[in-house]
Amino acid sequence: MAPQTKRYLNEIVAAQIVGLSPRTLQRMRHEGWGIPYCRMGLRRIVYDADEIEKWATGRTFRHRAAELAKQVAA
């Protein structure tokens, strides 16, 4: 079995996957929240595909009450 390799996505592709604009991802990074990212150089930002999935899963709710309950607990 081949070893699992990490899949890194650029900002544009990551934004398309989650349905946000690249500028929104930039703002989220600047404000210190959002999808975890990796800096591969001075200007190169990439996102781990697994981290995108974890981030989205952590924001998935069956109903509004469950979302509100998580906000109160935090």
UniProtKB/TrEMBL annotation:
It comes from the Bacteria. Transmembrane segments: none annotated. Residues 14-59 form the Helix-turn-helix domain. It holds the Pfam family HTH_17. This is Helix-turn-helix domain-containing protein. It comes from Limobrevibacterium gyesilva.
